[in-house]
C-alpha cells in the first residue's frame, strides 16, 4: 500500500522537478494529484520519463481530506492560504516557501543533517524545506561539524537564475541573445543586467545592509545545524541557468586538517568529493545539473585563522536545493511515521 500524494505548484520549475524526482526514485505513491492556481488548470504535466501524465486541478477547489502528503511549491502568499487548510484536513504539508521555516513549531529539515527534527511535525502538520543555498551548505558541513565543531562560517554564494524561477531563466536567455545581436539588454526581473554580469543582491534589503537571502542562510543554518554557529553570508546572482555554487570558509573549535576533512567528506551521505589539485579537478555548476549530490571541491587549510578550512560547494538548486530535499523529507516522513509501502 502506497501514499496519496499532492504536488502543489506542479507547473513551475520546482513543481515539475518534484514530479520528475518522485518518478526517478520510484516513490511509493498509489495516487498523485497535481494542483496549481486557476490560470494553470487544464495544463498537462509529465511524470518523469514515464508515460504517465497528470492534468492540473485548481488548488482552490481541491479537497485534501484523505491525502497523505502535499509537496508545496506555490510561494509564501499562496502557502499562507492553503497550507493550514491541507494540514487541518490531515494532509501533511512539505513546504518549499520561506513562510514557515523559522516557526518554532515547524521542523526545518535536511534529511542528511537533522532527520530527528521531523518528529515534531505533528504540532502543525507542516514541515519546512530550507532555502536552496542553505540546504547544500549544511549537507557539506554537517559531517565536519560532527568531528570538529564549527565556530564560524563565512560564505559567498554564486546563485543561478533558476532560483528566481522561469522568469529569471528567460531574462538571462533573452539578454544574452540581445547582446549578441546588438539589441538592448534591459533588466526587468533583476535589478541590473544579469547576462555577462553578477549582481550582489538577492531578495530585499534589511536595515543592517544585508539581504533577506543572506539572513535566511544565517538563521536557517543555526536552526538546522547548531544555534551557536556564527554565519556571515554574501549572496550573489550569477549568469548560470541551473546550479548554485558556494565558496565557504569555516573556523572550527578543534583542529581539522584538509586531509582529514577530505576523508570525512568522502564518506558523507549526500556528498560527492571531487578534489584533485589539477586543471579541472573540481566541479562546476553545469556538471551538477540533474544530479542528486552536493559536490565538494577545493578543500584546503586556511592559515589566517586557527583551525580554519576553505572549500567549494556546488549543487543543482532545483534538486537538492528544493525538489529533491522535499521528496527526501516525504520519504523520511513515511519511514518514521506513516509507514506505508
Summarize the structure.
The chain has 341 residues and is α/β, with parallel strands linked by helices. It is 31% helix and 23% strand.
Task: Describe the 3D structure.
By secondary structure, this protein is α/β, with parallel strands linked by helices. The protein folds into two domains: 3-130 and 322-338, Rossmann fold (3-Layer(aba) Sandwich); 133-317, Dihydrodipicolinate Reductase, domain 2 (2-Layer Sandwich), CATH 3.30.360. The protein has helices at 13-24, 75-88, 132-148, 166-181, 212-224, 258-266, 285-288, 319-338; strands at 3-8, 29-36, 44-46, 53-55, 57-58, 69-72, 92-95, 126-128, 150-159, 230-237, 244-252, 271-273, 294-302, 308-315. Strands 5-2-1-6-7-8 form a six-stranded parallel β-sheet, sandwiched between helices. The protein has a six-stranded mixed β-sheet with strand order 10-9-11-14-13-12. Strand 6 (69-72), helix 2 and strand 7 (92-95) form a beta-alpha-beta unit. The chain is globular. The N and C termini lie close together (5 Å). The mean pLDDT is 96.
Amino acid at each position: 500500500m502506497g501514499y496519496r500524494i499532492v504536488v502543489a505548484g506542479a507547473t513551475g520549475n520546482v513543481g515539475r522537478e518534484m514530479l520528475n524526482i518522485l518518478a526517478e526514485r520510484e516513490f511509493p505513491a498509489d495516487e498523485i494529484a497535481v494542483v496549481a492556481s486557476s490560470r494553470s488548470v487544464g495544463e498537462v504535466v509529465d511524470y518523469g520519463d514515464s508515460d504517465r501524465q497528470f492534468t492540473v486541478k485548481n488548488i482552490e477547489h481541491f479537497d485534501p481530506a484523505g491525502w497523505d502528503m502535499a509537496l508545496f511549491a506555490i510561494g509564501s502568499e499562496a502557502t499562507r492560504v492553503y497550507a493550514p487548510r491541507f494540514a487541518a484536513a490531515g494532509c501533511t504539508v512539505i513546504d518549499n516557501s520561506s513562510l514557515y521555516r523559522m516557526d518554532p513549531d515547524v521542523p526545518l529539515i535536511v534529511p542528511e543533517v537533522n532527520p530527528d527534527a521531523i518528529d515534531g511535525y505533528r504540532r502543525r502538520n507542516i514541515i519546512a524545506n530550507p532555502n536552496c543555498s542553505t540546504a547544500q551548505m549544511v549537507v557539506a558541513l554537517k559531517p565536519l561539524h560532527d568531528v570538529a565543531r564549527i565556530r564560524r562560517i563565512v560564505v559567498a554564494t554564486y546563485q543561478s537564475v533558476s532560483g528566481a524561477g522561469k522568469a529569471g531563466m528567460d531574462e538571462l536567455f533573452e539578454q544574452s541573445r540581445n547582446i549578441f545581436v546588438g539589441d538592448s539588454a534591459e533588466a526587468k526581473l533583476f535589478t541590473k543586467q544579469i547576462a555577462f554580469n553578477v549582481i550582489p543582491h538577492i531578495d530585499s534589503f534589511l536595515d543592517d545592509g544585508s539581504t533577506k537571502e543572506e539572513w535566511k542562510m544565517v538563521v536557517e543554518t543555526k536552526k538546522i545545524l547548531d544555534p551557536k554557529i556564527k554565519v556571515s553570508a554574501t549572496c550573489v546572482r550569477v549568469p548560470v541557468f541551473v546550479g548554485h555554487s558556494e565558496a565557504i570558509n569555516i573556523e572550527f573549535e578543534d583542529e581539522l586538517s584538509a586531509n582529514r576533512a577530505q576523508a570525512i567528506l568522502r564518506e558523507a551521505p549526500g556528498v560527492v568529493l571531487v578534489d584533485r589539485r589539477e586543471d579541472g579537478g573540481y566541479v562546476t555548476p553545469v556538471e551538477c545539473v540533474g544530479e542528486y549530490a552536493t559536490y565538494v571541491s577545493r578543500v584546503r587549510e586556511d592559515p589566517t585563522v586557527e583551525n580554519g578550512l576553505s572549500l567549494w560547494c556546488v549543487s543543482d538548486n532545483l534538486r537538492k536545493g528544493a525538489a529533491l530535499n522535499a521528496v527526501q523529507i516525504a520519504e523520511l516522513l513515511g519511514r518514521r511515521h506513516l509507514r506505508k509501502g
